[in-house]
Amino acid sequence: MEKLEQLYEGKAKKVYKTDDPNEFIIEYKDDATAFNGEKKGSIGGKGVINNKMTELIFTMLEKQGIPTHFIKLLSESEQLVKAVTIFPLEVIIRNTAAGSICKRLGLEEGLKLEAPIFEFCYKNDDFGDPMINDYHVIAMKLATKEDIEVIRDMTFKINDILKAYFLEKGINLVDFKIEFGKTADGQIVLADEISPDTCRFWDVKTNEKLDKDRFRRNLGNVEEAYVEMLKRVKA
Ligand code: TMP
Fold first, then answer.
1. pLDDT per residue over 108-163, tens digit each?
2. Residue 95 to residue 183: CA distance in whole angstroms
3. Fewer beta carbons under 10 A from the terminal one: N or C of the chain?
């Protein structure tokens, strides 16, 4: 499978057309940004690690009945996926308070939430990915009411699967962001990636952060955290 025209370049990945209109190639980059691109850098080996980790997790989720865009790995930093139209939504689940919710609502970092919190953000860098609700999504035609129901059901199911999966690996899944897309024949599938860029992973015993917060907050040992997470996912 050959990369043709580049369709899109994001902060961490590039997407290419292929000679099959139903398949795209995603190339994972080492580039890292935070705070809507204000902080820029690079995390050595990140592209390879996130490509591999997404393969392992999406394959596991497929086995548990979650449809995804993943088809196969093509190289260390590239994967073949189903061509989808991405909903311009960041879908977030929080199990433990961390990050923006602490700033916004004054919650203490590490507070175990009574129930998972589901959030939508409008995926639009010009406006800093603002949080929106179902009414905005429907009114702005970002997705239909029926799409939202499918996305919400899948997201809670994914949270249940991932929480148990990571707990077995000694990781508390604090929160995560996922994205969904629609195939040409109208199926809603999990898309994008699941990696230390898009989740908060805390060691169960020590609460050590093993995710992109090490980069965002200059905590050091950034590469080591990504390597450790891939090791645990492979175990
Ligand atoms: P937040 O606490 O900064 O809102 O982040 C919530 C989760 O979403 C966290 O696991 C990191 C992830 N995330 C992304 O994947 N991309 C983003 O652009 C942001 C802001 C967060």
1. 999 999 999 999 999 999 999 999 999 999 999 999 999 999 999 999 999 999 99
2. 30
3. C
User: What number does the ligand 1 atom closest to the CA of 198 have?
Assistant: 15
pTM of the shown model = 0.98
Last residue of a domain, one of 82, 104, 139: 82
CATH code where residue 28 lies: 3.30.200.20
35, 64, 82: which is the final residue of a domain? 82
Q: Ligand 1: does its nearest atom lie under 6 Å from the Cβ of 177?
A: yes
Q: Both ends of the chain: CA-CA distance in Å?
A: 30
Query: Ligand 1 mean position to 178 CA, how many Å?
Result: 9
User: 119: domain range?
Assistant: 87-221
CA of 4 to the centre of ligand 1 (A): 31
Q: Say if residue 46 is in the same domain as residue 160.
A: no
| Amino acid in position 214 | R
Q: What is the CA(20)–ligand 1 centre distance, in A?
A: 32
Q: Is the shortest distance between the CB of 176 and ligand 1 below 6 Å? A: yes
CA distance to 11, 91, 198, 199, per residue, from 80 (Å): 19, 23, 20, 22
State which ligand 1 atom lies nearest to the alpha carbon of 197.
Answer: 15
Length of the chain equals 235
